[in-house]
Amino acid sequence: MREWTIREEGYEEEKAAALGNRYLTGNGYLGIRGTLEEYEADRLPAINLAGIYDRSTGWREPVNLPNGCFSYLRVDGEMYRLPEVRPISHGISLDYRHGIFHRHTTWHTARGNVTLRTERFAGMDQVHVIGMRFQISADFHADIELVTGIDTKVWDLNGPHLEKISMQGQQDDMVVTAQTHEEGISIAVAEGVLASYPAEMKQIVKDHKILHRIFFITMPGETYTTDKWITVFTGKDVVNPREEALHLLQQSRTEGYDTLLERHNRRWEELWKHAEVKIRGDVKAMEAVNYSIYHLQSIAPRHTDSLSIPARGLSGQTYKGAVFWDTEMFMVPYFAMTNPAIARKLLEYRYKTLGKARILMKYRIDTLAGALRKAANYGYEGAFYAWESQEGGYDACTDYNVTDVFTGRPMRTYFKDKQVHISAAVVYGILRYVEWTGDDSLLDTEGVRTIVECAKFYYSLLLRRLTREDYEIHDVIGPDEYHERINNNGYTNRMAKYVLENAVKVIETAMQRGTLPEEYDGQELKAKFADAAEKLFLQRPHTGEKHENIIEQFDGYFQMEDVSLEDVRGRLLNEKEYWGGANGVASHTQIIKQADVVTMLNLFSREYDTSVLRANWEYYEPRTEHGSSLSAGMYAMLACKIGEPQRAYPFFMKSAMADLKEGGKEWAGLVYIGGTHPAAAGAAYMTVVEGFAGICTENGRLVCHPHLPQSMEELEFSVIYQNREYRVHIDQKEGTITEL
Ligand code: IFM
Fold this sequence. Notes:
alpha+beta, nine-stranded antiparallel beta sheet, 23% strand, binds 5-hydroxymethyl-3,4-dihydroxypiperidine
């Protein structure tokens, strides 16, 4: 039987960063890192806000809130906190069915043992509230002081982001207000406690903190419970965040902790009704995939319309809290199948970031945002979406996105300029949603405009040589980021063709319905896009002994040094050096960072014989570093499509365990790059549904072609397809799909 709980017993200080990610709780509005309550900024605690960005000293990044969870204990006047005082027992756990974090710590003191237990959750029912409960017990008459409040000195990668910080006591409650530097967005964090035992309470403001001091003496063996509520609002949510935060605090206190927790649990149970995956015979796989789903649910924006999900979820400021292609390619499919309203929101974010130029107060020039503007800046037409999209579609990707470990100097990278496949991911997400859900209202005027503008972008990238009839796309970076500025990337060209072909269909339908935006000449665009789609050069499976059936990743790839992954790894002079760029160890070799041709084949598998799919899987897998968490899932899914679930299995587990296992990349030099990996979580889910269960649509009907790995006796889950819910049951012999 599974537990729905992960645990970490014992205390190891150096694990703080990793556990902060693994034990994350969140509700789409905010994410609370799974760190200990007594941690200050140097141990990476954070309550990370969705969709509020700021720039002060370096990169623009999402804002971490004043830490309303901050707390520690004093016993007989001595401070008891980690890591300063070693405990005799300590552990944390996460109930990932309900997003509840627990901690227990027992310290030995001069007069006896004291135990602190805490519980906390980010309200799923009411996203502006964080609930916390402390339970303290001792085996002697301990003189306890529970210190809890709001720490305004927060962990930032490139902060500080908050100014005009004010800390005020408000009778029994306290409230911190502040403003972001760049846009002056006001934020308010209010906090209140309720002790269920007679206690003396004081408030103090000290060292960037506003704190309650709760004094009481324990009876041996009794447990003393203190409840705490933290409420959060910003100027983006309401006109007066401070008043709203205080008001909600009062309301939460009146309703009580247990009521809040019960409603929170109920909301999670509703989410699991459509999302849970049951696997008989392989508990480890079942737990890993449901844990992945937990993360996706914890970061899904439910409270507002104009948000998408960053590549590291709500686990902090890594990757600038930006939205990448990860969302459309890896997360949208999961939400379309289990919670289409969320998938729709994620896609509408791209409509909002299509072209509106937003000028922020301080950084007028480089925050001119929007996909249309980005394309124009490079001399292209149409919509070139931000590679690292922040609010308003501002591209947060810098020209120098990597620091050279040898010189300490920034290295020119071309991710922002050349990963043109980002716009195709947006179109893919929209069309995948429409096809799966049947909700073509997403293809209203804005949807048509987005797709047409993306098609115009690819059209404007096309090149034709005087000696050739076909069209090419040069100077790009495909999914494999180690090979920059290459020509005719197999993935990019195929995705461009997909966009052009679908733009023709979308224009046709819009013309019939009279919904084509007035600025377009439908006939002319259709003719141009159809011609481009037909003549666009695609890398084809090679013939000939050496590369029989292999699709070359880009022009000249086969001429690059064909050397093993281990040899390339052995050439590293520093374990942290970057493998790509001008001097990278992989740049002139066939070693690639992540699935590239394999990603293309997975998306368009129906266009190729199994022999081609297999040959490419076998050719590229040993040449792939899997240096991105996006890679393994693509190999897993394609392995299922060639009928090899056993080969898929380790890649599926790698994806599903991306946030569970030790050893992920956490630091690049001095820059923290850790965080959660929601794209890998989405890939793990898709491997179960599309890979192992083989769910797909044929003539508008849901069908399955299962390929279960040996360890899985039975697989069961629900999907929402075209507004109807289906229960899928697969065993080693057959699969059934039943409409509920
Ligand atoms: O989008 C990915 C990219 O493909 C590889 N580097 C990390 C990004 C964010 O996950």
